[in-house]
Specification:
Blueprint lengths: L5 E10 L2 E11 L4 E5 L6 H8 L7 E6 L2 E2 L4 H7 E4 L11 H11 L4 H14 L15 H13 L5 E5 L7 H18 L2 E6 L2 H7 L2 E6 L2 E7 H12 L1 E7 L4 H8 L4 E7 L2 E6 L4 H10 L4 E6 L4 H11 L1
Parallel strand pairs: 3-8, 3-9, 6-7, 7-8
Antiparallel strand pairs: 1-2, 1-4, 4-5, 9-10, 11-13, 11-14, 12-13
Helix pairs in contact: 3-4, 4-5, 5-6
Length: 311
């Protein structure tokens, strides 16, 4: 089995009396898009600063790409691309010139910097804007340029801190598609920090939820859904033509049904055992018919709220 891209063991960061990160145990493997999810102030940015060697842990240990975050932080920064929550640029220079300069700072030759800058601007969808000064760019365009900047040195790991914050829906969609493209076409491992549940669910393969500096849960997204199903019981999502309160009350009275909840045009039935057939017969007896019947799919918001409340 290959070495984890990121591995932390008891990673802790304390500022005076405040514990920003508390005993973080985390593993990110090659090829994953790992979503690091939590509210503002949960410890996400602190974790990123530690991983790239811009802060020193109070206790615990971690490796990134096999390098120790304290002793080998320079090697980490050579092999990791980082997009901070607000990337900085030379506003009076073009996108091309900005990337060329970053290439030179990363020990690329002038020729290689020019070539790499041109390639990356095409990759992030800014090719036709390459000679335009960055001061004329929208927030979304600057975020794409920031990702290009993070990719200039051909990193083995890309870390993104709130990459869609402040973007409109179109800009958010462009960043999401770019992240998926980089992972699929280049096999790039991506560590994505965000407080936006919908974006994590749309983008990531694995999720870690952090709250008050502590990792609450961490697993593949589909495993988290299964865990919630096991703890909450089997659930059905129904659309019933003209459901009456009498019908819903009778469904709730079926042995094996623990809860019936109506939301707008849908009915959610939670079961302690699979009594789907009995529910169907009950609906038919009332002269109603089912427009839709399927197992309820839990959203990341429901998963987050469950573990957030437990924490």
């Amino acid at each position: 089995m290959s070495q984890p891209v990121i591995e932390t063991k008891g990673l802790t960061k304390v500022y005076g009396d405040f514990t920003a990160l508390d005993n973080l145990n985390l593993t990110v493997n090659e090829g994953e898009i790992f979503g690091f999810l939590g509210p503002n102030g949960a410890g996400k940015t602190t974790t990123i600063l530690l991983l790239v060697g811009l802060s020193v842990p109070t206790s615990g240990a971690a490796t990134v790409l096999g390098y120790n975050i304290v002793r080998e932080s320079r090697e980490i920064r050579r092999n990791v691309g980082l997009l901070p929550d607000f990337a900085g640029f030379y506003e009076d220079l073009s996108a091309q010139k900005n990337l060329e300069y970053i290439g030179l700072l990363n020990d690329l030759s002038k020729t290689e910097s020019e070539k790499r800058a041109t390639e990356l601007l095409e990759t992030v969808g800014l090719g036709e804007w390459k000679n335009v000064n960055v001061e004329k760019f929208s927030r979304g365009m600057k975020q794409r340029l920031g990702i290009a900047q993070a990719l200039i040195k051909r990193p083995r790991l890309l870390i993104l801190d709130e990459p869609t914050i402040g973007l409109d829906p179109a800009g958010t969609k462009e960043i999401r598609e770019l992240i998926l493209k980089l992972n699929k076409e280049q096999g790039l491992t991506i560590f994505l920090s965000s407080h936006l549940l919908h974006e994590i669910q749309m983008t990531c393969t694995h999720v870690g939820i952090i709250n008050h500096g502590r990792l609450v849960v961490c697993d593949a997204l589909h495993n988290l859904t299964e865990l919630l199903t096991e703890s909450e019981g089997l659930s059905l999502e129904l659309k019933i033509h003209n459901p009456t309160q009498e019908l819903l009350k009778e469904i709730e009275g079926i042995v094996g049904v623990s809860r019936v909840l109506q939301k707008e045009d849908k009915v959610y039935v939670t079961m302690t055992s699979d009594v789907t057939l009995e529910i169907s017969k009950t609906i038919a007896r009332h002269g109603a018919y089912v427009l839709l019947m399927k197992p309820k799919e839990y959203s990341l918001e429901e998963i987050f709220m469950k573990y957030y409340e437990e924490a």
